[in-house]
Every structure is written in structure tokens, then in C-alpha cells.
Design a protein that fits this description.
Elements lengths: L8 H16 L4 H8 L3 E10 L5 E12 L5 E8 L4 H22 L5 E8 L9 H15 L8 E5 L5 H14 L25 H17 L7 E5 L3 H12 L3 E7 L2 E9 L1 H11 L9 E3 L1 H5 L5 E4 L8 H6 L4 E3 L11 H6 L3 E3 L1 H4 L2 H15 L5 H26 L3 H20 L4
The structure holds nicotinamide-adenine-dinucleotide (NAD).
The site of nicotinamide-adenine-dinucleotide has 19 residues, from helix 7 and strand 7.
Length: about 425
């Protein structure tokens, strides 16, 4: 899902579905409608006693887009987007649609969901107790629509393993006081979480980069890599690429962007950022603009921070061979044809950052069977899913002569249509 300022996110999500239908020759308006529209949107009232003794009523959402391939899956965010609650409703609808396609592209037997509460706990400086009471009351309010075989939420913006554990606790107590860890993922290890969850997104991106490099005949040993951002997704992508012998030459954060021509070690950059609060000022680095960072000559560019970074103007100046979108929606739609025209291979976000949802799925499987795998076992299972997702997408890209972004959507929509056709409509 690519969000454009001021636009309706759900309209954008719907357009992506329709674009895929165009390529696939799905003309039936009813079928298109079925694929685009969420199955259910739940909006709940969350009354909470605040620390000052007063009562506040928050609004929560859970949107369940499609479950033809398995239980709904997707995050719960605590956020206050600019457009208010009405915008948030459209946003969770769009994000749930996008989760359907993300799960389908890597063939995870789950569907798409998304939810959240219209609140910004950081901005409002809510206490731990207030956040816990909000979380538990929200869990109570949605407990009828979630469950290991129904809908399995996960952390998202401003939610962590702690909130996931609280939701699991409420759900279990509401359902006969049972231990039901498979109701939610992203839990701490002690509460039934999975190995490899913290590195999953970055590691998944690297599996994609490795396959993209083979396809483009780029040698990863000695390859020049630029990271945009220096957070969870980009740091682990950088670390695993370093293991493959690549040279990381650029990074950025909210304070600025830097290029280090001779390359830097990711752990040294982490230490520098911990000491100074930013990647800026790293010894031997040159401060550059965001555009200069993105358009530096390199083999692999990993946008791993924000949406809407690669505009048409930036795309014209790109000098990389592979882009792996660790972030969600870093490329604007008008940039895609330009990038495709330059023969740069783009691994689209729904594939390049699917490592997170892959490990979420594997956490759910471990919870359901009550047996826990090692880091290596989890990583290998994720690698198989993502590598196959990459090659399935590449094959469609060649067959339909479309870029990898469109190919990934065609693959995902095709898989959902298949599942739907097998089940049909009942009642
Ligand atoms: P994070 O908060 O750990 O890191 C974000 C990074 O972006 C930080 O280094 C921050 O300083 C940097 N940043 C912020 N403003 C910036 C600016 N103006 N210019 C350059 N950098 C800036 O977040 P994350 O979890 O790494 O997520 C990054 C992206 O990856 C998001 O789009 C997110 O949706 C996506 N993603 C993350 C995961 C995951 O599991 N972490 C999974 C799927 C997708």
C-alpha cells in the first residue's frame, strides 16, 4: 500500500487490486469488488479510567479484509494520523488489504487484517498503567472477532510485545481461562514468541537481495550498498549483507544522511549512533541530502525508513542496479515506470519486507503445535518461503512483461482468487 498525502489510502489499495485484475484479465466487476472490499470492519468504544480519575473514551478498529487462504493476520497500531478517526478507518482498511497480498505473495496460509486505536501514547505521554488499561479494554472489545483460527494480530506502530502479551492474557481469560498463545504474535520469547523475530524483516530483505543479485548478475561480495534509515529493518539488512561480503557506504536517520566512501561496519555505526544520537558525524563520512543518498552510485539501494521517498525526480537520477524496499511504500507510483525503464530490479515492499510476517506465521505455528524451533530452523523456513516468493514473482514478471511490483500483486491476487474459487460462496 502506498500512501499519498491527502489521498484516500483505501482508494489506492483498491486501485492496486484493479491494476492486477487488468493484467490478469479479470473483468467481472463483482469479482473485483469481492477482492478489494474488506469482509468486516469492527469499530469499538474503549472507555478507560485515566490516572487523574477521569474517564476517556477511545476509538478502536479491527479490519478483516480477506480470509480465503487462512485466518486474518496483521498489526495493531496506536496512532493518531492527521486525518483523524475517519482517516484511520480508511487506513486500516487499506493496510488490511495489503496484508492479504503480503501473506499470499510468500504463500503463508493466512489472510489480511489490521487494526488499532486512535491514540498516540508517545505524544500524550500516557503512563504504563494507562496504556495497559487501554490495551486490555480493547482486547476485551475485539475478543469475539479474534482467535488463533480467526484473526491473529501482531505489533505495529507504537505497540510492542508487552501489549501483545496483555491481549493474549485477556483473550485467554475471556475464553475459559486458557493458555492460547496462538491468538497473537510478536510476543516476548518467554510468552511464546519466536526466535528470529527481531531480525526477521532485515534478514528477509537480504534473502530477496541475494536472489535479485543472482538474477542481475551482481556479485554481493564487494557490492556497494546504501541504506536509507538506520532502524530495525535497515540495520539488520545491513548486518546480513555485510556477512555476504557487501560494503555498506550510506545510511540516514531523522537527523540527516551520510556517505562513507570506504564503507563502514554496521556495529560501529550503531555504537556511533548510540553515543551521539545520529548517524551524522560518523568518522570519515560526508553529510549529504536525502536525494544525494538515494541517488549515490551503488549496486543495492535499501529504502528502509519512510514512505514516498523515491519520487519521479529521484527515480530519474537513480544509479543503482537493485532496489529492495524494506520500508513500506517508499516509491511513488509515478516513479515505477521510470525505474523499470532504467532496468533497475525492484523487489517490492510486499515481498522485500515480508520477513516480519513470515516469522509471525512461524510463531503462530509453533504456538499451535506447542513446540519451539531454534533460530536456525526458523530462519531456514523463512528463507524457503521468501526465496520461492521472489522466484514466483520473477516468473510472473517475465510472463506478463510487467515490473516486479505488478507481478507480486498478480501472484497474490491469483492465489486469493484460486482459494475463493475452491470454496465458492456459502450461504
Ligand atoms: P525504526 O523506527 O526501527 O527505524 C526507522 C528509521 O528511519 C530510523 O533510523 C529513523 O531515524 C529513520 N528515519 C526517520 N525519519 C527519517 C528521515 N526523515 N530520513 C531518513 N531516515 C529517517 O522502524 P523500522 O521497524 O525499521 O521500520 C522502517 C520501515 O520498515 C517502515 O516503513 C516499516 O513499516 C517497515 N517495516 C518494518 C517491519 C519490522 O518488522 N520492523 C516490517 C515490515 C515493514
Amino acid at each position: 500500500m502506498r500512501r499519498l498525502a491527502g489521498s484516500d489510502p483505501f482508494a489506492n489499495a483498491t486501485k492496486q487490486v484493479n491494476d492486477a485484475c487488468d493484467i490478469m484479465g479479470i473483468d467481472d466487476a463483482g469479482m473485483r469488488d469481492y477482492l478489494a472490499t474488506p469482509n468486516r470492519l469492527v469499530r469499538v468504544k474503549i472507555p478507560v479510567k485515566m490516572d487523574d480519575g477521569g474517564i476517556r473514551v477511545f476509538t478502536g478498529f479491527r479490519c478483516q479484509h480477506n480470509n480465503d487462504r487462512g485466518p486474518y493476520k496483521g498489526g495493531i497500531r496506536y496512532f493518531d494520523p492527521e486525518g483523524g478517526e475517519a482517516y484511520m478507518e480508511r487506513e486500516v482498511m487499506a493496510l488490511s488489504s495489503w496484508m492479504t497480498w503480503k501473506c499470499a505473495v510468500v504463500d503463508i496460509p493466512m489472510g489480511g487484517g489490521k487494526g488499532g486505536i486512535y491514540v498516540n501514547p508517545k505524544k500524550e505521554k500516557l503512563s504504563e498503567g494507562e496504556v495497559e488499561r487501554i490495551t486490555r479494554r480493547f482486547a476485551f472489545a475485539i475478543s469475539e472477532v479474534i482467535g488463533p483460527e480467526k484473526d491473529v494480530p501482531a505489533p505495529d506502530v507504537y505497540t510492542t510485545g508487552r501489549e501483545m502479551e496483555q491481549i493474549m492474557d485477556v483473550y485467554g481469560k475471556m475464553n475459559g481461562n486458557r493458555q492460547i498463545p496462538g491468538v497473537i504474535t510478536g510476543k516476548p520469547l518467554v510468552a511464546g514468541g519466536s526466535q528470529a523475530r527481531n531480525v526477521a524483516t532485515g534478514l528477509g530483505t537480504v534473502y530477496c537481495v541475494r536472489e535479485a543479485a543472482r538474477t542481475m548478475k551482481v556479485k554481493l561480495r564487494g557490492a556497494k550498498v546504501v541504506l536509507q534509515g538506520f532502524g530495525n529493518a535497515s540495520i539488520f539488512a545491513g548486518e546480513y549483507l555485510e556477512e555476504e561480503g557487501a560494503r555498506i557506504v550510506g545510511a540516514s536517520d531523522s537527523k540527516g544522511s551520510v556517505l562513507v566512501p570506504r564503507g563502514f561496519k554496521v556495529d560501529r555505526m550503531i555504537a556511533h549512533k548510540q553515543k551521539t544520537g545520529s548517524v551524522v558525524g560518523y568518522p570519515g563520512s560526508r553529510k549529504v541530502s536525502a536525494e544525494e543518498l538515494l541517488t549515490e552510485k551503488c549496486d543495492v539501494l535499501i529504502p528502509g525508513a519512510l514512505e514516498n521517498q523515491i519520487t519521479a525526480g529521484v527515480a530519474e537520477k537513480l544509479r543503482c542496479r537493485i532496489i529492495a524496499e524494506a520500508a513500506n511504500g517508499p516509491t511513488l507510483p509515478e516513479a515505477d515506470p521510470i525505474i523499470h525503464g532504467k532496468k533497475i530490479l525492484v523487489v517490492p515492499d510486499i515481498l522485500a519486507n515480508s520477513g516480519g510476517v513470515c516469522v509471525s506465521y512461524l510463531e503462530w505455528v509453533q504456538n499451535n503445535i506447542g513446540y519451539y524451533w531454534t533460530f536456525k530452523e526458523v530462519a531456514e523456513k523463512m528463507e524457503a518461503k521468501i526465496t520461492k516468493g521472489f522466484h514466483d514473482t520473477l516468473a510472473i514478471s517475465k510472463k506478463h512483461k510487467v515490473d516486479m511490483r505488478r507481478a507480486a500483486m498478480v501472484l497474490a491476487v491469483g492465489r486469493v482468487v484460486d482459494a475463493f474459487k475452491h470454496k465458492g460462496i456459502w450461504p
